[in-house]
Write a structure and sequence with these properties.
Structural class of chain A: alpha/beta
Oligomer: heterodimer
CATH topology of the largest domain in chain B: Rossmann fold
Strand order of the largest sheet of chain B: 5-6-7-3-8-9
Number of helices of chain A: 16
Helix content of chain A: 55-70%
Order of helices and strands of chain A: HHEEEHEHEHEHEEHHHHHHHHHH
Helix content of chain B: 25-40%
Radius of gyration of chain B: 18 Å
Largest interface: A-B, 21 and 25 residues
CATH class of the largest domain in chain B: Alpha Beta
Strand content of chain A: 5-15%
Number of helices of chain B: 8
Strand order of the largest sheet of chain A: 4-1-5-6
Number of domains of chain B: 2
Distance between the termini of chain A: 19 Å
Largest sheet of chain B: 6 strands, mixed
Distance between the termini of chain B: 16 Å
């Protein structure tokens, strides 16, 4: 095996373009994936035309004033705002691509907000671009509208809650600019109790008792009215529970993903190519005469491919750690996870290589298999139907990508499932693909 | 056709060898012997089973039945030169020879490589990558690799197919020198003239069956048409037997 390894290294040394591509391509892919996953989406650019007349940005609720600017500004938390001076300019900005969407606030926005619900206030959103961009902008605008609505509802709820307090306890109320003293239900009940006690007229007492009971009912339930308001303001609260192990932050998960993708590409392409090369050069027939037993030939290819991929991905992991903080105390686990994953991918590579007679065919086959496996392993459980998800899980479990991703994620991020389980899974797959490669070598010799 | 007895001790004895690929019976019950220093030609139409037979003798393919035996006490492997060059295009001539010398387990790989470079006349090209050599030179290296372990039996599958007449002449001079040193050589070819010129004995295979085992003169005599040209005699011989 030593001489075959040396020979393969000599061949690789003379195949600088191939080696360069094998290293640069997966690393570039991995960095792209990592960058895409760890950085949030850019803010979409929105053309903004505000037609609310200056000085008319507040709505009055009783004696309180709410500034609508607080509401409209909330719409721009997640967008990049371009102020324009007319609806036509807003449309042109969207049409020309300067902005992905236009947001137009009509002049009657404040009036409709303060008209007591006779008609809803509206904003106009103009979209352009392809379906993907529209979908992104629409969801961004919709979610920001929902947040701004909630903020406005909270302010209205606070004001309404104050009114309820005045109705219950009494106090001053402002109606159309005039101040009134409101007696309040509690004081009304006290006065009615006193009047009923002092009344000599049974018919008057009979009339006052239901009014007193009504006041008593109001006083005792005043807090429930506020609860109802709170519920309307925020009907659903979110309580988070993680069922399995530790959550991995997205940026460190992206590191594990990038490393696993690189490991897979280098290992599978190199191992399959090196084995297919023996067929392409017709040397397999010489070796098969007993010069190099089949198992040793396969082991040599796996060791070389796994060794190269291990070095590439370990260096990559160390390089990434300069940008994303990783726990060096777990470095020994990184090495174990990378090594076992590399051997599993290498074995898959020789199984693919055993089916091909040319390096190009082996590389194509390896790519055609590796890419879908990577995508399938990232499909979330709720993203597809339960039946399809079960099928995807079975397929993902039958190849090394998913268990490798789990193992590297566990080693780097202490994520679940635990490392030992993933390593055992990879060991089983190594045995299976090793047997498949032996069979392929005999069957297609 | 009974197997002719060879006058000297056989370097290789093939007894009842058969091979089937699914429905196709590629080699059926083939038996023959080859003596040390003998040059044996295997001829037959396309698909006759020549390459399959040589692959079985070389140990590349397992036979379904029968046996391939070397004299007791022989430890050297049978040498094998496949039809297509089976060497690494990215390695140099010397690196290829050294690699296979080590894999063959020869006692002194460097000395063996130097000897083979000298014998094949490729010493000056020792540092050249195989992929940059001409087809003829690649074939010389291909043959040299088969001879590294100094095998008692050498199998050559269409050895001169890629060579020009001058290179072919040189190749046969080389092979003849090997037989003079006692190496038994079995080669298969489509070129009947080459078989007649170089083969001391000829085996005729058709549809995996060994139809003839004898000299060129005997093959001519066996043709019912009494052809004087071996190629015509060969065609008549096959036609007479329904092939």
């Amino acid at each position: 095996m030593r001489w075959m390894l040396l020979k393969d290294l000599q061949i690789l040394r003379r195949s600088k373009l191939l080696v360069g591509l094998l290293i640069v391509y997966p690393v570039a892919i991995a960095l792209l994936i990592g960058f895409a996953l760890s950085s949030g989406p850019d803010k979409p650019r929105l053309a903004y035309f505000d037609q609310i007349p200056a000085g008319e940005t507040t709505i009055k609720l009783g004696g309180d004033e709410l500034d609508v600017r607080a509401y409209t500004d909330g719409l721009f938390d997640a967008v990049d705002r371009i102020d324009v001076d007319s609806r036509a300019q807003a449309l042109e900005a969207v049409r020309s691509g300067e902005a992905l969407a236009g947001l137009i606030i009509p002049p009657d926005f404040v009036r409709k907000l303060s008209n007591g619900g006779l008609s809803s206030a509206e904003v106009e959103v103009v979209y352009n671009g392809d379906a993907l961009k529209q979908s992104f902008v629409r969801s961004t605008v919709t979610s920001n509208l929902a947040r701004a609505d909630a903020a406005l509802a909270r302010q209205i709820s606070t004001v309404a809650s104050g009114y309820i307090d005045i109705v219950g306890e009494g106090g001053k109320i402002n109606v159309l600019g005039l101040q009134f003293d409101l007696l309040g239900l509690r004081e009304s009940k006290t006065l009615l109790d006193s009047a009923i006690e002092q009344s000599d007229s049974p018919s008057l007492t009979r009339k006052l008792v239901p009014v007193r009971d009504f006041a008593a009912l109001g006083v005792s339930n005043i807090d429930r009215f506020k609860d109802v308001l709170n519920t309307v303001e925020r009907p659903v609260r979110v309580s988070e529970t993680v069922l399995e192990g530790r959550r991995t932050p997205l940026d460190t998960f992206a590191v594990a993903l990038a490393v696993t993708v690189s490991l897979m590409f280098v290992c599978v392409l190199l191992a399959s190519g090196l084995l297919a090369l023996e067929r392409e050069e017709n040397t397999f027939s010489r070796l098969a005469r007993g010069l190099v037993p089949g198992g040793r030939l396969l082991a040599g290819k796996v060791v070389l491919a796994a060794g190269c991929a291990f070095v590439v991905t370990l260096v990559m992991l160390l390089g990434i750690s300069a940008f994303v903080p990783l726990d060096y105390g777990r470095a020994a686990l990184w090495i174990v996870a990378l090594a076992v994953s590399a051997v599993a991918f290498g074995t898959l590579g020789v199984a693919i290589g055993s089916l091909a007679r040319e390096v190009r065919a082996a590389s194509l086959l390896a790519l055609m298999l590796a890419l879908p496996l990577a995508f399938l392993a990232l499909v979330p459980s709720g993203g597809v139907s339960p039946l399809l998800y079960d099928v995807i899980r079975v397929i993902s479990a039958a190849f090394p990508f998913k268990p490798s991703l789990d193992a590297i994620d566990a080693a780097v991020n202490d994520a679940s499932p635990n490392l030992a389980l993933s390593l055992a899974h990879l060991a089983a797959l190594t045995v299976v693909f090793g047997a498949a490669a032996r069979f392929g070598l005999r069957r297609f010799a | 056709m009974p197997v002719d007895a060879v006058t000297t001790a056989p370097a290789l004895t093939v007894q009842g060898v058969s091979k089937r690929f699914g429905e196709l019976q590629a080699v059926r019950d083939v038996s023959f012997e080859v003596a040390a220093g003998e040059l044996l030609a295997v001829i037959g139409p396309n698909g006759a089973g020549k390459t399959t037979l040589l692959s079985i003798l070389a140990g590349i393919l397992p036979a379904d039945g029968g046996s391939v035996a070397q004299p007791e006490g022989t430890t050297e492997r049978i040498g094998w030169v496949p039809q297509q060059t089976a060497i690494y295009g990215k390695l140099t001539v010397a690196q290829n020879l050294r690699l296979f010398a080590k894999l063959e387990g020869v006692a002194d790989p460097d000395a063996t490589v130097a000897r083979m470079l000298d014998q094949t006349g490729l010493a000056e090209r020792a540092g050249d990558e195989l992929g940059k050599l001409s087809g003829g030179n690649r074939q010389r290296v291909n043959i040299a690799v088969g001879l590294l372990a100094d095998p008692p039996v050498l199998l050559l599958d269409e050895p001169s197919g890629a060579l020009d007449p001058r290179q072919r002449e040189r190749l046969w001079g080389f092979i003849t020198a090997l037989t003079e040193r006692g190496t038994a050589v079995i080669f298969c070819t489509h070129d009947i003239a080459e078989a007649e010129r170089h083969g001391q004995r000829i085996l005729v295979l058709a549809d995996g069956e060994l139809l003839f085992n004898g000299t060129a003169a005997e093959l001519k005599a066996a043709s019912q048409a009494g052809e004087r040209d071996l190629e015509q005699a060969f065609v008549s011989f096959l036609r007479d037997r329904g092939h």
